[in-house]
Amino acid sequence: MKSLVASLTISIMGLATSLAAYAADVLPEHARSSTQMTSAAISFIASLDEDQIESTVFDLEVDDRATWPNLPIIMVQPDGLLVGNMSDEQRAALQDLLRASMSSQGYAKFTGIMQLDDLLHDFEAAELEKRTDMEDKTYRAAFVATRSSGNYAAAIFGNPASGDWGWKLAGHHAAVNFTIADGRVGFTPTFLGSSPMAVDTGPYSGWMALPHEGSRGVDFMLSLTEAQQRAATIDAVSSDGIFEGPGHRASLSKYEGLKAEELSVGQARLLRALVSEYVGNVDFDSAEAQLALIDQSGWDELWFSWRGPVDVNGKFYYRVHGPRLLIEYNRQGSNHDHMIIRDPQNDYGEDWLELHYEEHHPTLREASQAARRRAAAGSPE
Question: Of the candidates 184, 191, 251, which has an alpha carbon nearest to the alpha carbon of residue 27?
Answer without folding.
Answer: 184
